[in-house]
Amino acid sequence: MPVPYPLADHRLAQRLERAEGEANRRFVEARARAEPSSGASWTEVDGTYVMFDGVESPLTQTFGLGISVPVTSTALERIERYFSDRGATTFHEVSPLADGSTLPQLHARGYEAFEFSSVLFQPLPADPSLAANAVRVRPTTPAEIDRWAQTAGEGWSEFPELEAFIRAFGQVVASSKGVLTYVGEIEGRFAATAAMALHGGVALLAGASTIPSARRQGAQAALLSARLRDAAARGCDVAMMVAQPGSASQRNAERNGFRVAYTRLKWRRPADAGR
User: Fold this and answer.
1) Number of folded domains in the chain?
2) Cα(273)–Cα(243) distance, rounded to whole angstroms?
3) DSSP β-bridge partners for residue 210
4) pTM of the entire predicted model
5) Does the structure show a pLDDT above 60 at 274?
């Protein structure tokens, strides 16, 4: 019988937000090990993960604001000081299931909302029905970090401004402790990449990239299936993904059994807020 979907309630949101925060903590720690001069670091304020991975990095933000405890002006002041001390803007990605104190506090301090993201989930074990194809999926080895990161970057080669960033970030992902990386091979060549981070029974799926010449051959479907099986075998009962609302990534996720748990809002504090 199909595994029932858990309710998309506050308890599930806490698990999903914590799992994503833990994954990004590992990425930041990997950056700090590889590039000490980057100043990459993280801290925790009232259950909120506060990450710095460089002024321009999308990881430089908070995760889980208001999901564990009510938000206070004192906590926000500490978080804002952490970022301002490093020359960074303060960003928060906030679940609609966060405590009711969250939005009034952000409005009072001059924050503005500017971006949405969909958090998707499905129960495990899952057995997506996939057509047989020529893609061979396997975990990567430590010696393949450079090749994995290069392939991840090549998957964004039509966007030159992103390719170099994805390649560099792929190095961070692949060298993060507790993060599993996978490759999809076609005729012995690296064709696609994916990653997975586990925490508290939740498997966060990320790192999806396919080189242009290998697209529409089922590589990402095969990588998804392999990760869901591995996550279930490792004791996870929920898988999650994050995607831009209405994107191809979200549509593909929903075709493969994922549902939208909630849509988050990303907030930023303008430089002149509070003056």
Assistant:
1) 2
2) 29
3) 192
4) 0.92
5) no
